[in-house]
Amino acid sequence: MGNIINGREISNNIKDEIRKYVKNGKSKVPKIVSILVGNDGGSIYYQNYQEKCSRDLGIDFEKIIVDETTDEKNLEDIVLKLNNDDNVDGIMLLLPLPKHIDEKRITNLISYKKDLDCLSDVSIGRFYKGEKSFIPCTPYSVITLLKRSNVELLGKHVVIIGRSNIVGKPLIQMFLNENSTVTVCHSKTNNLKEITKCADILVVAIGKPKFIDDSYVKEDAIVIDVGTSNVDGQITGDVDFDKVVSKASMISKVPGGVGALTTVLLFKNLCEGLK
Ligand code: NAP
Question: 0.85 exceeded by the pTM?
Answer without folding.
Answer: yes
